[in-house]
């Protein structure tokens, strides 16, 4: 059984809320044919986990995009996740990554930009995530603690096969339930190993970490990789360039190749395709 889900949980006696994420097939689909080095896999995976944790429970239709334009060897990291937890993403590099391992070495002073889009109202909100510590987790701990006004702690891990993560958040009335509860839960969670995050099912992981706590586990939300080859959208783009321009490119290159970077596919248009495309347009104009 593969695991591609994010799941909320609650420490019932402490009023501390949490989320657990573990992605397998959906993550492997996102990495397919990309041949990223380990350093990129780790950062892109952690960013992907973070995007899903933030999108889980979105109150409206839309999407969250996390983007880092780096000045180090990793020039771009982009992850998009929709309100119904469909993910896609890409990383770009301008050199071979060898010894660089810290975020500062990999991204330079690249900033993490969060964009939240509401497709119902066409509104979008953008905010930079402060680069704290030397991890994606630490940066987002600070960001969520400020933006949601709830102290947040995050543990993330990613490899070629799996992504795993745990987010816990302290609610306003937590201390009233148990003054030591928050510190105890952080202390217990800090013992988690990367391998446990990426390989253990949620029940087993939570039991291993918190076997003396009372936990309510909510329904799992499925996460899927989705990158449809939307030919109509590409055709519309070609039409908007105009027939003369498109035919000029076709003449120079023999065919038109559109590369979709975030989804990693090529769409090819030959002479017949272009003839058909503009013939169809002529029909609709008459």
N- to C-terminal distance: 55 Å
- Return the structural class: alpha+beta
Note the run of SSEs as H and E.
EEHHEEEHEEHEEHHHHEEEHHEEH
Q: What count of helical segments does DSSP give?
A: 11
Structure description:
The protein is an alpha+beta fold and 286 residues long. The protein contains 11 helices and 14 strands. The protein has helices at residues 25-31, 38-55, 103-107, 136-147, 174-177, 181-189, 194-199, 202-210, 231-241, 243-253, 271-285, and strands spanning 4-11, 16-23, 62-69, 74-82, 86-93, 111-118, 123-129, 152-158, 163-170, 215-217, 221-222, 224-225, 256-260, 265-269. Strands 1, 2, 8, 9, 10 and 11 form a 6-stranded antiparallel sheet that branches. The protein has a 6-stranded mixed sheet with strand order 7-6-3-4-5-12, with helices on one face. It has a two-stranded antiparallel sheet with strand order 13-14. Strand 1 and strand 2 form a beta hairpin. Helix 9 (231-241) packs across helix 10. The longest helix has 18 residues, at 38-55. The N and C termini lie far apart (55 Å).
């Amino acid at each position: 059984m593969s695991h591609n889900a994010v799941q909320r949980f609650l420490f019932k006696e402490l009023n501390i809320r949490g989320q657990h994420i573990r992605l397998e097939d959906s993550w492997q689909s996102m990495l397919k044919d990309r041949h990223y080095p380990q350093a990129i896999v780790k950062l892109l995976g952690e960013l992907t986990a973070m995007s899903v944790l933030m999108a889980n429970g979105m109150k409206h239709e839309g999407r969250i995009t996390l983007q880092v334009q780096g000045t180090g060897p990793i020039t771009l990291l982009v992850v998009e996740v929709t309100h119904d937890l469909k993910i896609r993403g890409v990383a770009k590099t301008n050199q071979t990554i060898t010894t660089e391992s810290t975020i500062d070495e990999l991204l330079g002073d690249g900033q993490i930009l969060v964009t939240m889009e509401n497709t119902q109202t066409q509104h979008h909100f953008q905010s930079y995530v402060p680069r704290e510590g030397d991890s994606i987790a630490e940066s987002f701990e600070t960001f969520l603690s400020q933006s949601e006004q709830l102290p947040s702690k995050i543990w993330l891990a990613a490899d070629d096969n799996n992504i795993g993560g745990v987010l816990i958040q302290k609610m306003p009335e937590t201390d009233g339930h148990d003054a030591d509860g928050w510190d105890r839960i952080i202390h217990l969670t800090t013992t988690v190993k990367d391998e446990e995050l990426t390989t253990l099912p949620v029940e087993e992981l939570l039991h291993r970490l918190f076997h003396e706590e009372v936990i309510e586990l909510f329904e799992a939300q499925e996460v899927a990789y989705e990158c449809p080859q939307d030919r109509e959208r590409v055709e519309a783009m070609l039409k908007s360039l105009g027939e003369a321009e498109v035919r000029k490119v076709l003449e120079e290159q023999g065919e038109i190749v559109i590369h979709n970077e975030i989804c990693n596919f090529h769409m090819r248009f030959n002479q017949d395709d272009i003839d058909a495309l503009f013939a169809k347009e002529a029909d609709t104009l008459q």
